């Protein structure tokens, strides 16, 4: 393969993977992630990478457009993604001559089967519409596994109950992503056209359902307990309390043994993903394509896993809003390097286009190329994030040493000193209303909200709009729900 050819791009993406789940980065050294460890040693780790919106659909809308939620108009899973005529980086790559292919979860709305710049897709969605158009679900039916009603794990009341997968390893959804990615890489080994491959894993998104025997890789009693600071009400947001209820996790206190088992199965899901990453890297090596491929590994958002007494995503603590971000450069440069400059998923679009020599205007994107961050040639010091908007809005400004958050449903500010309080256990905004970093970052966050076209979040004078404080109903059955598969016909056992 000619080294002068534009590089291939392999985009490895996971769902709900915390930033602290790669062994080589030292947070949980007992984790078994040898292939992700390899990427850190052969590339650049961006240690302060953040989701522009810590929920699946808005995070992905931001990533594929390179723009913040205020410009995409997608603030939560309840919103549509931008219209299909708004260009994505996949479309720009395709128009420039790249072969573009997607494997796995895209979570495109309102049409989950749209292409949005992919020439082809192998469909595997978290809650598929049917068992015909979803390639993975159809494969299960054709292999006599159609009796498995919820192949990604049993949801509803079991959503946050750790569970071994009902499927064997070779039919597990994570393994299928590895298989289909390898199929694509091998099909392109003799082609002269550069390619972009998006390999998107649904795990470790709950339910935490690793296959046998991976469910024995980590044992619950060996897992670290969650971080439970003294004043949880002071440190958490309305969205935390609401989603704890919706996930059946707020009634009757915390079961710490159950949380440790959640963590064991969550980590097992990540290790099983790591296994597939290794298989994919081996395929690149075997076909002679590794050294001409830009590899990016990241995730859409994190997972609380019981920290702060919370479960799920959507919050702005690092365990929810901060993600892993590793780049292995095709020329082998910048190996085993790390940077603490804040970056975001919105930076991936210009990163891929620069790597592919596709021209673009800087105003096309809110993000900047990661090449500039890795080289230290950018002056940006902050990134931003938000979940939802206006009366439900949660807004964040973060830099290497400080984080500011405003929660509209709580009408409350938060300030964390990330250098001296990396676990975000002390809200300085509640103790020092005139803290200089609070005043500075509040202004930066409000200016960002204004410049991204969200006047409804701000009062006429540019300060935060005052909305009624929201509370979760006292009735423990309020707000509970189900997420049954759409193909279930509702039939129950008979006798």
TrEMBL record:
It comes from the Bacteria. Keywords: Hydrolase, Metal-binding, Transferase. It comes from Puniceicoccus vermicola. GO terms for molecular function: metal ion binding; sulfuric ester hydrolase activity; transferase activity. GO terms for cellular component: cytoplasm. Residues 7-358 form the Sulfatase N-terminal domain. This is Sulfatase-like hydrolase/transferase. It holds the Pfam family Sulfatase. PANTHER family: IDURONATE 2-SULFATASE.
